[in-house]
Amino acid sequence: MPKIVILPHQDLCPDGAVLEAETGETILDVALRNGIEIEHACEKSCACTTCHCIVREGFDSLPESSEEEDDMLDKAWGAGAGKSTELPGPRYRRRSGYRNSTLHNQPCA
Protein backbone atom coordinates (compact mmCIF):
# COMPACT_ATOMS: atom_id res chain seq x y z
CA MET A 1 0.00 0.00 0.00
CA PRO A 2 1.48 3.42 -0.94
CA LYS A 3 2.48 5.74 1.89
CA ILE A 4 2.40 9.54 1.92
CA VAL A 5 4.65 11.47 4.29
CA ILE A 6 3.10 14.78 5.33
CA LEU A 7 5.76 17.12 6.66
CA PRO A 8 4.90 19.11 9.80
CA HIS A 9 2.74 22.19 9.33
CA GLN A 10 1.89 24.45 12.25
CA ASP A 11 -1.84 24.61 11.54
CA LEU A 12 -2.76 21.46 9.63
CA CYS A 13 -0.51 18.72 10.97
CA PRO A 14 1.93 19.99 13.65
CA ASP A 15 3.73 16.66 14.09
CA GLY A 16 3.64 15.56 10.47
CA ALA A 17 2.22 12.17 9.52
CA VAL A 18 2.78 9.02 7.51
CA LEU A 19 -0.48 8.07 5.81
CA GLU A 20 -1.47 4.93 3.93
CA ALA A 21 -3.22 5.39 0.60
CA GLU A 22 -5.03 3.15 -1.82
CA THR A 23 -3.48 3.01 -5.29
CA GLY A 24 -5.08 5.76 -7.37
CA GLU A 25 -6.47 7.64 -4.36
CA THR A 26 -5.79 11.37 -4.37
CA ILE A 27 -3.48 12.96 -1.84
CA LEU A 28 -6.30 15.32 -0.89
CA ASP A 29 -8.66 12.42 -0.15
CA VAL A 30 -6.00 10.64 1.92
CA ALA A 31 -5.33 13.79 3.94
CA LEU A 32 -9.03 14.50 4.55
CA ARG A 33 -9.70 10.88 5.53
CA ASN A 34 -6.95 11.19 8.14
CA GLY A 35 -8.25 14.41 9.68
CA ILE A 36 -5.89 16.80 7.89
CA GLU A 37 -8.32 19.52 6.85
CA ILE A 38 -6.88 20.69 3.55
CA GLU A 39 -8.74 23.56 1.93
CA HIS A 40 -10.31 22.63 -1.41
CA ALA A 41 -12.45 25.52 -2.60
CA CYS A 42 -13.83 23.75 -5.68
CA GLU A 43 -14.88 20.62 -3.74
CA LYS A 44 -12.31 18.46 -5.57
CA SER A 45 -13.58 19.23 -9.08
CA CYS A 46 -10.13 20.35 -10.34
CA ALA A 47 -11.44 23.86 -11.02
CA CYS A 48 -9.02 25.80 -8.81
CA THR A 49 -5.60 25.24 -7.24
CA THR A 50 -6.32 25.68 -3.54
CA CYS A 51 -5.23 22.13 -2.70
CA HIS A 52 -1.94 21.95 -4.63
CA CYS A 53 1.24 20.93 -2.83
CA ILE A 54 4.98 20.76 -3.27
CA VAL A 55 6.41 17.29 -3.83
CA ARG A 56 9.71 17.23 -1.92
CA GLU A 57 10.67 13.60 -2.56
CA GLY A 58 9.24 10.77 -4.61
CA PHE A 59 8.12 12.90 -7.56
CA ASP A 60 9.15 10.18 -10.00
CA SER A 61 6.71 7.75 -8.36
CA LEU A 62 3.73 9.88 -9.45
CA PRO A 63 2.00 9.58 -12.82
CA GLU A 64 2.36 12.37 -15.36
CA SER A 65 0.04 15.30 -14.81
CA SER A 66 -2.81 15.87 -17.21
CA GLU A 67 -2.94 18.85 -19.56
CA GLU A 68 -5.86 20.22 -17.50
CA GLU A 69 -3.82 19.95 -14.30
CA ASP A 70 -0.80 21.65 -15.88
CA ASP A 71 -3.01 24.49 -17.12
CA MET A 72 -4.44 24.99 -13.62
CA LEU A 73 -1.00 24.91 -11.99
CA ASP A 74 0.24 27.55 -14.43
CA LYS A 75 -2.19 29.88 -12.64
CA ALA A 76 -1.35 28.74 -9.10
CA TRP A 77 0.66 30.91 -6.75
CA GLY A 78 4.08 29.37 -6.09
CA ALA A 79 3.43 26.06 -7.84
CA GLY A 80 6.54 23.93 -8.22
CA ALA A 81 8.03 20.57 -7.42
CA GLY A 82 11.39 19.15 -6.50
CA LYS A 83 12.51 15.69 -7.57
CA SER A 84 14.21 13.10 -5.41
CA THR A 85 13.96 9.32 -5.31
CA GLU A 86 15.65 8.71 -1.95
CA LEU A 87 12.43 7.47 -0.33
CA PRO A 88 9.96 4.95 -1.76
CA GLY A 89 6.96 7.28 -1.42
CA PRO A 90 6.17 10.94 -2.02
CA ARG A 91 6.70 13.54 0.72
CA TYR A 92 4.52 16.65 0.87
CA ARG A 93 4.68 20.00 2.59
CA ARG A 94 2.10 22.74 2.74
CA ARG A 95 3.58 26.02 1.54
CA SER A 96 3.73 28.35 4.55
CA GLY A 97 2.48 31.88 4.30
CA TYR A 98 -0.27 31.15 1.79
CA ARG A 99 -3.44 29.65 3.15
CA ASN A 100 -4.77 28.28 -0.13
CA SER A 101 -1.69 26.31 -1.15
CA THR A 102 -1.61 22.78 0.18
CA LEU A 103 -1.69 19.28 -1.22
CA HIS A 104 -1.73 18.69 -4.93
CA ASN A 105 -4.79 16.69 -5.98
CA GLN A 106 -2.72 13.98 -7.69
CA PRO A 107 -3.10 10.18 -7.57
CA CYS A 108 -0.72 8.57 -5.09
CA ALA A 109 0.60 5.73 -7.21
TrEMBL record:
One of its GO terms (molecular function) is electron transfer activity. Residues 63-109 are annotated as: Disordered. Signal peptide: none annotated. One of its GO terms (biological process) is P450-containing electron transport chain. Residues 2-109 form the 2Fe-2S ferredoxin-type domain. It comes from the Bacteria. The keyword Iron applies. GO terms for cellular component: cytosol. Keywords: 2Fe-2S, Electron transport, Iron, Iron-sulfur, Metal-binding, Transport. The keyword S-adenosyl-L-methionine does not apply. It holds the Pfam family Fer2. Its cofactor is [2Fe-2S] cluster. Belongs to the adrenodoxin/putidaredoxin family. This is 2Fe-2S ferredoxin.
